Amino acid sequence: MRRHYRRLLAMAAAGAWARLPSYPRARQHLPGGRCPAGAPGTAGDTRLFLRAIEGAGAGFEYAMFLNAAERRLLCLFQPGPYLEGHPGLTHGGAIAAIVDGALGTCALAVAGTVMTANLSVDYLAPVPLGAVLLLDGRAERLEGRKVFLSCHVRSADGDTLHARATGLFIRLDPTKHPAQEEGGGR
Amino acid sequence: MRRHYRRLLAMAAAGAWARLPSYPRARQHLPGGRCPAGAPGTAGDTRLFLRAIEGAGAGFEYAMFLNAAERRLLCLFQPGPYLEGHPGLTHGGAIAAIVDGALGTCALAVAGTVMTANLSVDYLAPVPLGAVLLLDGRAERLEGRKVFLSCHVRSADGDTLHARATGLFIRLDPTKHPAQEEGGGR
């Protein structure tokens, strides 16, 4: 994980790629760190789903790098032992979750506030817990409020294609809370 | 949540539906509680992904009920505050994860050990944190080793259709560990 992380950091230092910050709460990812008007149920102790599992290395360990000009996002991801599905293997739902997080982040960078409208994942090879993966996501095209994205999930050494995915995200009106819009579920 | 849970328990008491047990570790869900030969990396402290978030009500709160004759599974689900995506709303990846868990459980009951080959979720209406949902999943058909399933995610009162999903699961050779098979990612 560290070796691949250093490689991506070096790539970011060269200019075209930017390491994205990661916060434990969803609102911190929004412009200015504020909630849109009418956000429901945000007074209590909430946690961004991908940062909800306690313990270093136990859950979703990841770092995202954005290339805005190419509308492309790389996500280095290591599933911890609390993401288990079959014994010793990563749960399909955990893979769907990190893909949704990566593609949503890419769509946000390209089109502003978005929500998932469709996510489809083809699982091609099981992912052992602790494996180091590289998600390569990109916005393929924009049509009105729709952002179409694709993602490949490979072993970090590039040898194995573990999953392929597509995502459709809908751009929201930034002055409204997503709960007031139709569609979307992120 | 309790009211809907009691309704499903009463339905189970009537005979056709069975409340399924839930364990914190994946291997406990397999026949005899044992791992297949060759299971990698299962010696340490692992946790089933859907049971990985600590704290009552913080993560995935759910109960599953199976109707084996109808090849149908109902899953009562309440997303806790640690499943946040947009402020106050459930992360799309968390919805994909519970759908994968529910359809995988249904496929397991119908066809034995399975892995996810494809999961596709249409997000139709945002899900506030703390909402009570009812997932209605069923195995539509079996073709060789393939199990085709569908799922509707509605508010527990039935008024709102929040998501629709399809799943394709592949039946595995029960004597092999899933990591030794092609495809699949659960």
Task: Tell me what the structure shows.
Two copies of one chain form a homodimer. Chain A is α+β, with helices and mostly antiparallel strands and 186 residues long. The model of chain A is unreliable at 33-42 (pLDDT under 50). Helices cover 17% and strands 32% of the residues of chain A. The two termini of chain A are 28 Å apart. Chain A has helices at 2-13, 92-111; strands at residues 18-19, 60-67, 72-79, 114-123, 133-143, 146-155, 161-171. The longest helix of chain A is centred in the middle third of the chain and has 20 residues, at 92-111. At the A-B interface, helix 2 and strand 4 of A face helix 2 and strand 4 of B.
Helix and strand topology:
Two copies of one chain form a homodimer.
Chain A: H1 2-13, E1 18-19, E2 60-67, E3 72-79, H2 92-111, E4 114-123, E5 133-143, E6 146-155, E7 161-171
Antiparallel strand pairs in A: 1-2, 2-3, 3-5, 4-7, 5-6, 6-7
Strand order of the largest sheet of chain A: 1-2-3-5-6-7-4
Shape of chain A, please?
globular
**What is the percent of helical residues of chain A?**
10-25%
The residue-averaged pLDDT of chain A reads 88
Number of helices of chain A: 2
Summarize the structure.
With 186 residues, chain A is α+β, with helices and mostly antiparallel strands. Helices cover 17% and strands 32% of the residues of chain A. The interface between A and B is large, with 71 and 71 residues.
